[in-house]
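User: Second chain of the day. Same drill as before.
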Amino acid sequence: MTSIVGQIRASRAANERWRMEKSATAENTARLASSVATLRTFGVGSIIIAAPVTFEVAFTEEPSITSGCSLIKAANDIFQLPITNVGVRQWVKTRSLYTGALLYVSVWSAELPEGLRPLKPYECATQSAALASARALGLPAPYVAEILACGPGPLSPTEKGILEDAWNEQYPGWLKEITVVHSITFTGTAVKDVPTAGVDDDITATPRTTVLGTS
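Assistant: Same format as last time:
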């Protein structure tokens, strides 16, 4: 005959097992979730990210993707704030679940229109004003050398033409200094596997149960 104490103990253990199984099942139920990743790019153009981004959760369907960016370093005040885009070129799947993504990133920048930007050195009237513009814009030494090569005083049309040609030749290299951090968020329905260890801690009081999802 089973003792009253043993019956109470078995009943409590069974209730605890039921509670934990219910909690684990609810945890495994599909729910809306997000996974976040960050990337850093240098310069303008498009790049394919070779290594896949691994999600923090497993999505049951193709997640939506949103992205934003923070500008760490700009070329100078002539160029507008960069326009960026992050996209998925291929999803990484484990069986039927979406577990990662291969990404590409694009960054663009263009000059601000006149009136919304400071004067370029070759738009200035004198050499001193051109040098002040170069310092304010943080232009590199090779361009400053072109200004110094011009005579003091007013800039002639020929000297302005030389400085304009030097600008057009050198500015693509300045854009390589644009540094942007991209934040990407993947959102969708996801599941999370939960171990069932601890459901049957006392095998003497309750029978062993199968792992959730098995028979």
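Residues 4 and 67 are 62 Å apart (CA to CA).

User: Great, on to the next one.
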